[in-house]
Amino acid sequence: MVRIFSYAIWIVLGGALIVLAVANRQAVILNLVPEGMQELLPSTYQVSVPLFLVIFLGVLIGLIIGLIWEFIREYGQRSEAQRSAREVKRLRREVKRLKEQLGEEHDEILALIDG
After folding, report:
1. Cα angle at 24 between 21 and 27, to 5 degrees?
2. For the residues of 41-64, what is the DSSP string, one character each?
3. 27 and 48 in contact (C-beta within 8 Å)?
4. Distance (Å, rounded) from C-alpha 115 to C-alpha 112?
5. Do 75 and 54 form a contact (C-beta atoms < 8 A)?
6. Which of 34, 42, 52, 81 could form a disulfide with 21 if both were Cys (CB 3.0 to 4.6 A apart)?
7. Could you tell me the pTM of the whole model?
8. Residue 42 to residue 40: CA distance in whole angstroms
9. pLDDT tens per residue, the chain (115 residues)?
10. Hey, is 27 helix, strand or coil?
């Protein structure tokens, strides 16, 4: 049921993006350098692209910046989780070793009692 709901959301989102692209396919001119600086440069830095491409690229760049920001922000939490995992592994090995030692001693005591 969750999978069907997930697919339905993706289909609606995809449809909305297609409608947005078709509705905004007229070309717009993007100035890569402010107008005041264009006079100082040898050529004009303008590009003509469809509006939907500008919208999609803006959203994509925002997502990438957000992902990088979160990756950097969560670095401390990830390193602490790794340290905790190593400590848990070490403690499990120690518990296993102690149980083995206790088991050997326990067997010797039983042998003395039985014997």
Report:
1. 115
2. SSS--EEEEEHHHHHHHHHHHHHH
3. yes
4. 5
5. no
6. 52
7. 0.59
8. 7
9. 888 989 999 899 889 888 888 888 898 888 888 877 777 777 777 888 898 888 889 999 999 999 999 999 999 999 999 999 999 999 999 988 887 887 665 656 656 665 5
10. strand
